[in-house]
């Protein structure tokens, strides 16, 4: 994808995380630990997937693998889907779990409804990343929404999700959705100022293709794309593992977003440390009080009938998501002034 100014987004190289995903199914089925060089399956326990990354050194959550369903290498990353024993099917990018069928609701519902329930009548929404379609599924519950753009860099993520996670990718069936395969930064550069009521950044971790989505120039572009009083919700990592990343995001967002800046979190058992957070920001304009939702999720079934009921989000958990443990509150509040 060529960005403005001629810079070319560099596809991810294997050496960057030091592992590859050439996993032999026989090794899994035979509980054979001969494939040690792969790093994923399974230098820790034979027949298990272990999530090893420099982003959470010294720990690795593991899931028992029943069957590997897909392995591929896109222009940007390694893509794998496996059937786990206890969490259903699992989507893995570059060795890191993106979603499981069992707990994806806790992430997709919160990253979507925390921002969309905080403003009245959101109409135009942009999703950056989120190629699995889960955020789209949640946006589609809001009947006020007239148009949803999604910009996902990796078409393989979209295709694999449609094939293996139909209950997640169901979001693509909504006729209000327009899919753009490309780089989120380049997409935002081309967006007229003040276009969106809400931008949701459903990124992977900040190593690899998502790195730019955690940096100040990106947040500046998001702020420009939002209308006055528009809202951003971006994946903002774990208070247990990544306070340094969260601090940087808070500092940058506080400088750029002149309305509210708040950190919220949710529990996702298969993400590192079992929790993940979101940074919610609003631009100068009509005030946004993220802690007190004003716009309930409606039971709109007209655009997309097969999405099923909400499993995780409700107005109580919305308010509770902004309650922080003391150690995190101290750091985040000191940086948000
Ligand atoms: N550590 C993994 C964080 C992944 C966040 N994005 C997940 C995408 C689900 N739609």
Automatic annotation (TrEMBL):
Pathway: Amine and polyamine biosynthesis; spermidine biosynthesis; spermidine from putrescine: step 1/1. GO terms for cellular component: cytosol. Coiled coil: none annotated. Keywords: Polyamine biosynthesis, Spermidine biosynthesis, Transferase. The keyword Transferase applies. Pfam families: Spermine_synt_N, Spermine_synth. Residues 1-13 have a biased composition (Basic and acidic residues). Signal peptide: none annotated. SUPFAM superfamilies: S-adenosyl-L-methionine-dependent methyltransferases. The keyword Transferase applies. It is an enzyme of class 2 (transferase). Residues 1-36 are annotated as: Disordered. The active site is at residue 202. HAMAP family: Spermidine_synth (MF_00198). Belongs to the spermidine/spermine synthase family. This is spermidine synthase. It comes from Camellia sinensis.
């Amino acid at each position: 994808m060529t960005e403005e100014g001629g810079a070319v987004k560099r596809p991810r190289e294997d050496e960057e995380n030091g592992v590859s995903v050439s996993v032999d199914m026989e090794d899994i089925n035979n509980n054979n630990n001969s494939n040690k060089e792969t790093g994923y399956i399974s230098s820790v326990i034979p027949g298990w997937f272990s999530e090893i990354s420099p982003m959470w050194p010294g720990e690795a959550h593991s899931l028992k693998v029943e069957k590997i369903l897909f392995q591929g290498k896109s222009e940007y990353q390694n893509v794998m889907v496996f059937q786990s024993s206890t969490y259903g099917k699992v989507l893995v990018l570059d060795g890191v779990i993106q979603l499981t069928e069992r707990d994806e609701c806790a992430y997709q519902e919160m990253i979507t409804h925390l921002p969309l329930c905080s403003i009245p009548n959101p109409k135009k929404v942009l999703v950056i990343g989120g190629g699995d379609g889960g955020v789209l599924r949640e946006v589609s519950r809001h009947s006020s929404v007239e148009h949803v753009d999604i910009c996902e860099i990796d078409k393989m993520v979209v295709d694999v999700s449609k094939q293996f996670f139909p209950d997640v990718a169901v979001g693509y069936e909504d006729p209000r959705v327009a899919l753009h395969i490309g780089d989120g930064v380049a997409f935002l550069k081309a967006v007229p100022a003040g276009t969106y009521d809400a931008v949701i950044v459903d990124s992977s971790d900040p190593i690899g293709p998502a790195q730019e989505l955690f940096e100040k120039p990106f947040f500046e572009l998001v702020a420009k794309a939002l209308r006055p009083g528009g809202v951003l919700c971006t994946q903002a990592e774990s208070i247990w593992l990544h306070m340094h990343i969260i601090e940087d995001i808070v500092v940058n967002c506080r400088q750029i977003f002149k309305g509210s800046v708040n950190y919220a979190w949710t529990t996702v058992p298969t993400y590192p440390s079992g929790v993940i957070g979101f940074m919610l920001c609003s631009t100068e304009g009509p005030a946004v009080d993220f802690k007190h939702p004003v716009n309930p999720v409606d039971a709109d079934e007209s655009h997309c009938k097969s999405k099923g009921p909400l499993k995780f989000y409700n107005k109580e958990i919305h308010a509770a998501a902004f309650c922080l443990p003391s150690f995190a509150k101290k750091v985040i509040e000191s940086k948000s002034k």
